[in-house]
Design goal:
This protein is mainly α and about 120 residues long. It is about 70% helix and about 0% strand. It has helices at about 5-20, 25-35, 35-45, 50-60, 65-75, 85-95, 95-110. The two termini are about 30 Å apart. The model has no long low-confidence stretch (mean pLDDT about 85).
Length: about 120
């Protein structure tokens, strides 16, 4: 089970990553959420918790839904899926069937006991 501090840090890291990907400044996200940019800095570092009433307008500004945001930040808690598994499923579905076959072969080889990753 994750501690509250770990969850706050994961949520903060997701805010920081999404903000960077969207090219939004901390001031822009703060303005949309009705907080100061210093508060956004604290959220991103996991120092302060983000209230849902703040998270909803933040997500709007970042172009994501709070449900997607939380699933990405924490993984699907109901099934225990790791973060990113929904994104992986979405990308897999977009592949051509021949590409899916190759990807499955690579993944199968990677989980094989004889697979050795090259660092």
């Amino acid at each position: 089970m994750q501690t509250q501090d770990e969850i706050d840090q994961k949520i903060g890291a997701t805010i920081r990553r999404l903000r960077g990907e969207r090219g939004a400044s901390q001031a822009q996200v703060a303005s949309a959420a009705g907080v100061t940019f210093q508060q956004v800095q604290k959220y991103e570092r996991g120092v302060n918790r983000v209230a849902i009433s703040t998270l909803v307008p933040m997500c709007k500004a970042l172009g994501c839904s709070p449900v997607e945001f939380l699933a990405e930040a924490m993984g699907d808690l109901s099934t225990g899926n790791p973060p990113g598994s929904d994104e992986l499923q979405r990308l897999y579905a977009a592949l051509h069937p021949a590409q899916r076959a190759v990807l499955l072969q690579v993944a199968g080889a990677m989980v094989s006991p004889s697979f050795q990753a090259v660092a």
